């Protein structure tokens, strides 16, 4: 579960559940889907770590 914030061409997904997440890999795809759903835009890239993911949006 994520709290997603969108501003212009950038989205942040803050992980708010207590699920154990040792690596960013499994979280990255879920964070990207949450950012796409919240923004209505395509997510070009997702960077970050287990707690905070930052996405670059393509809203054209």
Write a structural description:
By secondary structure, the chain is an alpha+beta fold. Helix content is 25%, strand content 43%. It has one helix at 25-39; strands at 2-7, 10-15, 42-48, 52-58. A 4-stranded antiparallel beta sheet has the order 1-2-4-3, with helices on one face. Strand 1 (2-7) and strand 2 form a beta hairpin.
Describe the structure concisely.
It contains 1 helix and 4 strands. A 4-stranded antiparallel beta sheet has the order 1-2-4-3, covered by helices on one side. The protein has one helix at 25-39; strands at 2-7, 10-15, 42-48, 52-58.
Let me know the number of strands: 4
First-residue to last-residue Cα separation: 27 Å
**What helical percentage do the residues reach?**
25-40%
Summing up helix and strand content along with how strands pair, one would put the structural category as alpha+beta
Strand-and-helix sequence, N→C? EEHEE
- Fraction in beta strands: 35-45%
SSE arrangement:
Elements: E1 2-7, E2 10-15, H1 25-39, E3 42-48, E4 52-58
């Amino acid at each position: 579960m994520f709290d997603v914030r969108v501003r212009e061409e950038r989205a942040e997904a803050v992980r708010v559940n207590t699920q154990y997440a040792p690596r960013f890999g499994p979280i990255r795809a879920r964070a990207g889907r949450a950012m796409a759903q919240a923004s209505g835009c395509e997510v070009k890239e997702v960077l970050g770590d287990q707690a905070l993911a930052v996405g670059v949006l393509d809203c054209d």
